[in-house]
From TrEMBL:
Name recorded for this polypeptide: Glucose-6-phosphate 1-dehydrogenase
The encoding gene: zwf
EC number: 1.1.1.49
Active site: 238 (proton acceptor)
Catalytic activity annotation: D-glucose 6-phosphate + NADP(+) = 6-phospho-D-glucono-1,5-lactone + NADPH + H(+)
Length: 480
């Protein structure tokens, strides 16, 4: 097969994609006859490009670079200068692809990875078609990064354009949260452990909380982030995908089609939040100056590149309901934010507490049982249970934890690239899910644009706006 990588001189390629390919290679998961063609605007020779790949492995690979085989790995790479707007430029690319296919005796199976600015996706796809590069005798696949559109309308337009060249089966929309090993484990855990499946429903569960908190600010991405906000950057994609993965009914065989169907049913069943209701269920916030992990940091409005008095959201929290029999009346709370006190992605399932409101037991310190999936940066599954301390005679919440050694775990991009090579779409976002996610988000986006709900400031390094705590307190809960 051939992997054509648009944006091969960019950050994602250096940090994630080359190391992921190398680790797949070390694990024997890369086809031995593979041609990898990197594209960019800068003029490089093949050798210089190969050395760049090598350097990125040394810096970012989770496993040490092995001198005895790294040369063989980088010899799979070629480089081609490409002006994505210029149709003729694609002719050179086609020649190189075909030359390598002949040299290596490989079939015309071509995978196009678009690690480029979102506004280039359309033009590249259409040029792949007009240059006939996408006319292959074997299979073809297109991998696209988020963001997929900027609202419901643009997402639909983009999808329509892509569909002219690739059919849905050939489009792999990457959401790197779906590549995180613990997220991939969610459905298999339920599948393989009937006790979990028994607990996983509205009879037992009081609420579900999904958190993706970050300590970083907007880094050097003001141009993008000031337009996107946390709602587009994290909520529409990563958080809703985590929600789907948590709430799906376990399919019988776990096939990609079944998982897709189940995920779609979850997002289809989301109770819509109208523009008018947004302020009841949604909290938006923006960080002010503060201290994160012991360092003073500036507020969002002072970040270079942010428009003066920007009302962009760097924090988003929401209360959602899934209107199906499994989740009737069980709130799901999701939240994400930049410049919070800790980096943590986790899913917490709070079970019903039959002692709640019973002072005899509440006074003794009984807390609800929690099932906690830590996804990032540490990976673990834990169960919070109440144990009685014999000396104090009080109950103490105690964690039974299984921790995963994250150093030996493959990274998101490794798992996702390997799936894409295999043609397995289980952990990619399907069009319907993406469309329905935008559909749910759209009225909220409009409420943000019309400034129809408060924008709560929160100090950098805090837990986020207090209003987000009140959202749960209204229902008698608190964030875990
Ligand atoms: C990206 C967002 O998709 O995910 C970033 O664009 C965010 O703003 C990142 O920082 C978080 O990813 P992770 O894997 O570090 O949780």
């Amino acid at each position: 097969m051939t992997l054509v990588l648009f944006g091969a001189t960019g950050d994602l390629a250096q940090r994630k994609l080359f190391p992921a390919l190398y680790n797949l290679y070390l694990d024997g998961k890369l086809p031995s006859a593979i041609s990898i063609i990197g594209l960019g605007r800068t003029n490089y020779s093949d050798r210089v490009f190969q050395m760049n790949v090598h350097a990125s492995l040394q810096e970012f690979s989770r496993r040490d670079v092995q001198p005895e085989n790294v040369e063989e790995f980088i010899s799979k790479f070629r480089y081609c200068v490409l002006d994505v707007f210029n149709e003729e430029s694609y002719q050179g690319l086609l020649n190189l692809i075909q030359m390598r296919e002949q040299e290596l005796g490989i079939a015309e199976n071509r995978m196009f990875y678009l690690s480029v600015a979102p506004d280039l996706v359309e033009i590249i796809t259409s040029n792949l078609q007009s240059s006939k590069i996408s006319d292959t005798k074997g299979w073809k696949r297109l991998i696209v990064e988020k963001p997929f559109g900027t609202d419901l309308k643009t997402a639909r337009e983009l999808n329509e354009k892509l569909s002219k060249v690739f059919n849905e089966e050939e489009i792999y929309r990457i959401d790197h949260y779906l590549g995180k090993p613990m997220v991939q484990n969610l459905e298999t855990l339920k599948f393989a452990n009937p006790i979990l499946e028994l607990l996983w429903n509205h009879d037992q569960i009081a609420n579900v909380q999904i958190t993706a908190s970050e300590t970083v600010g907007i880094e050097k991405r003001a141009g993008y982030y000031d337009q996107a906000g946390a709602i587009r950057d994290m909520a529409q994609n990563h958080l809703l995908q985590l929600l789907m993965m948590t709430a799906l009914d376990i399919p019988e065989n776990l096939t990609a089609q079944e998982v897709e169907q189940e995920k779609r049913e979850v997002v289809e069943a989301l109770r819509p939040i109208s523009k008018e209701e947004a302020s009841k269920h949604i909290i938006r916030g923006q960080y002010a100056a503060g201290e994160v992990l012991g360092e003073s940091v500036i507020g969002y409005q002072d970040e270079p590149g942010v428009v003066p008095a920007s009302k962009n959201d760097t924090y988003f929290a929401a209360r959602l309901y899934i209107e199906n029999p499994s989740w009737e009346n069980i709130p799901f709370y999701i939240r994400t934010g930049k410049r919070l006190e800790q980096k943590s992605t986790r899913i917490v399932i709070e079970f019903k507490n039959k002692w709640k409101g019973n002072p005899a037991f509440e006074d003794e310190g009984i807390t609800p049982n929690l099932l906690i999936f830590e996804i990032n940066p540490n990976e673990s599954v834990s169960l919070l249970v109440n144990l009685k301390n014999p000396s104090t005679e009080r109950y103490e919440p105690t964690n039974i934890t299984f921790s995963v050694n994250s150093n030996i775990q493959p990274e998101s991009y490794e798992l996702l690239l390997s799936d894409a090579i295999e043609g397995d779409k289980t952990f990619f976002a399907h069009w319907k899910e993406v469309e329905l996610s935008w559909q749910w988000i759209q009225p909220i986006l409009e409420a943000f644009q019309e400034d129809a709900l408060p924008l709560y400031p929160y100090p950098a390094g805090s837990k986020g706006p207090e209003a987000a705590d009140r959202l749960l307190q209204e229902d008698g809960f608190n964030w875990w």
